[in-house]
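To: structure subgroup
Subject: Chain for Friday's discussion

All,

I'm putting the inputs and outputs inline so they're searchable in the archive.
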Amino acid sequence: MVGVDFGTLSGRAVVVRVSDGAELGSAVHEYAHRVIEHELPGSGVRLGPDWALQSPQDWIDVLRNAVPQAIAAAGVRPEEIVGIGTDFTACTVLPTTADGTPLCFETPDEPHAWPKLWKHHAAQPHADRINELAARRGEGWLPRYGGKISSEWEFAKALQVLEEAPEVYARAERWIEAADWIIWQLTGVESRNICTVGYKGIFQDGAYPSEEYLAELDPGFAGFVGKLATGAVGEKVGGVTLAHLGGLAGRVTARASAWTGVPEGVAVAVGNVDAHVTAAAADAVRPGQMVAIMGTSTCHIMPSDQLAEVPGMCGVVRDGIVPGLWGYEAGQSAVGDIFAWFVDNHVPASYVEQAGEQGLHAYLTTLAEKQEVGEHGLVALDWFGGNRSVLVDHNLSGVIVGQTLATKPEDVYRALIESTAFGTRMIVETFERAGVPVEEFIVAGGLLKNPFLMQVYADVLRRPLSVIGSDQGPALGSAIHAAVAAGAYPGIEEAAAAMGKRTENAYVPDTARADAYDRLYAEYRRLHDFFADGRMLHTLRAIRNEASK
């Protein structure tokens, strides 16, 4: 099986043995355009604050480079490959023509023609209007999203396109998640997966928001659902089927075979989201198993056999992680991004010299872990990328309290790590207060490489951490879904049991440190509640935006 994970800065492919999930070979392809945040490539057209775009060409280049390289590294014959699955960041969404051509290929100097990456937060005013109107009308779908639709999701980003670039909106015959677009390129068949449609596309109980509601938002938005081109599960609308996870989306075309080296006719799994496929890779597809995929951001996903309204969650979707269960999602918009921001911008040259070959992150971690809990005298809010859960407000910003003339870089670095752990504890406690118990907390993603950070999370959460048994969780999860699509296993649960892996209780909380963190967490909660209304932080952001025009 081949699993392909399309991330924020790169795409990676892994070749996996069907019988036991052994990873035989892998390869990574770095995106040439990375994240487009300041100006469009080539034209130099400037972007506004809080924009984040990507290039579809980078995604195709992953198929052309990482996949054949992974097959070569695995030493397998192409004819041995029986399935391919993919996953994507979400909500990463793009406007296309009816045949799937990205509009940015036709008008590369128009910002709104490009795919909007998950971390594009410039649609926050549009999300605010979506939420205000839905609350006023008593829309039944709003509680399924914790009471607020995020600016990261499909409808807010599309409304921004309509109102800021109506000619682009008019030309867009499709508004499609990259997770589904890449499947279209592999198979030649347009499809939609229940995961992104549910979590990012406000599809609940077999329906999207009504035309009446959309028209009240903006008369030009009334027909927006037609660009999504899906109806109920299994029902074709305009030739497009809404499909269950682990299903067969189609088969590799001759063109895609030439790109990837995967034989024509091989099974292609229904598209999926990077976080959600990772549950299968960790064999965490049972009720109460929360998986935190920790990298540039953190996504918390968990299957459950019960439906509840969890304030500030990203969504709860029937069959959204595995068929037959409710799937919950929450998240933090920035985690690893916070640490990278601090290291890139706020560490003196003397530290760079002392860090040497080990690098600044490792050096700062070494210094930070020598401290006792609370020794730095700081507490921070993890809102440097806004707040995804539980406040759902991307116009919030980071806060650090307690700095003095004696504060050192390692103090701030440790406080930022702790802030992200506090944010996760807030999410876990919110779920449990809503009656959705978290029975096991499992970590996946790149931040697993930092044992100190993992121990901080165990101490702050006051619970053991299990860890995934793979460095390529999403890619492995995609391969597991491909195994189901190819018929090697009857369902995701069986495939995950055979091919997924995790180590239980890899990190255990220390009672003394956990008690000390309770005191700091209480101050985090006070700070959280004080700034939650956004009055000061929104004003500062508005002043910044006005000054930058």
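Points worth raising on Friday:
The chain has two domains: 2-270, 284-471+490-548.
The domain at 2-270 is CATH 3.30.420.40 (Nucleotidyltransferase; domain 5).

D.
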